[in-house]
Amino acid sequence: MCSAEARGQTAKHNLIMLLKELNIFKSFVKQRPPFDIVIDGLNVANTTPKATHSETLLAVVLELEQQGLNILVLGRKHMLQPSRNWDRQNMNKIKQKAHCFFTENISEDDPFLLYAALHSGVHCNFLSRDLMRDHKACLPDSATRRLFFKWQRGHQLVISHYVPGKRVRFQRISAYDTIVQTSGSSWHIPYDENRGDRATYEVPQKWLCLTQEH
After folding, report:
1. 15, 29, 44, 203: which has the fewest C-beta neighbours closer than 10 Å?
2. What are the counts of helices (DSSP H) followed by strands (DSSP E) for the chain?
3. Is the pTM higher than 0.85?
4. Exposed, middle or buried by CB within 10 Å (0-12, 13-18, 19+), for 19?
């Protein structure tokens, strides 16, 4: 078998395994109450080099559990193998405090995260530093991409501050839509001062208010 054919067979096999895994995950989600927050476990665990991965992830889960949230942690199976970064005791505590689903190590976890968050309803947020650029680029048209962007801004949380041993703090999600708005003869325009490119989950924090003179 030539190398190109072998690569094609491998890609086909991986796709079949991914589809099977997605079907298992869909059943997993349907058998549980709607989640309040979905955590990108591997992404969140890499937040700081000052703590092991499992220590960071456990701190985040405990902080959210204290808020009374129904939590889903998405991870990969290698996280269940005891190591310096993945302490078995920490992982067992995480599994006690949150629903957990661990994909194959070769799987892309973003589709699982997006499915769980969307399936759980408009109240559900997700926690990740991933900008989801690849997923937006795959959407068929600009209107759909804008819709996804708007949903992302309203539902994505990121860790704004974490020092081991102290409380985890999250960036607050804006309660209003940061687009140009008008009311009567007044216009409200969101803007940044001396700011470079923002991440897609970030929104302008200042507003320019204009009123038409009669």
Report:
1. 15
2. 7, 10
3. no
4. exposed
Three-class secondary structure of residue 192 per DSSP: coil
Cα–Cα distance for residue pair 7/86, rounded to 1 Å? 32
- Map 103-140 to HEC letters: ECCCCCCHHHHHHHHHHHCCCCEEECCCCCHHHHHHCC
Q: Is the dihedral of CA 77, 80, 86, 92 positive or negative?
A: positive
Rounded Cα–Cα distance for residues 70 and 120 (Å) = 11
Q: Where are the beta strands (DSSP E) in the chain?
A: 37-40, 71-76, 99-103, 125-127, 156-157, 159-161, 169-170, 181-183, 186-191, 206-211
Total length of the chain: 214
**Do 22 and 112 contact (CB within 8 A), yes or no?**
yes
Give pLDDT tens digits for 169-199.
998 655 455 556 666 667 666 666 655 555 5
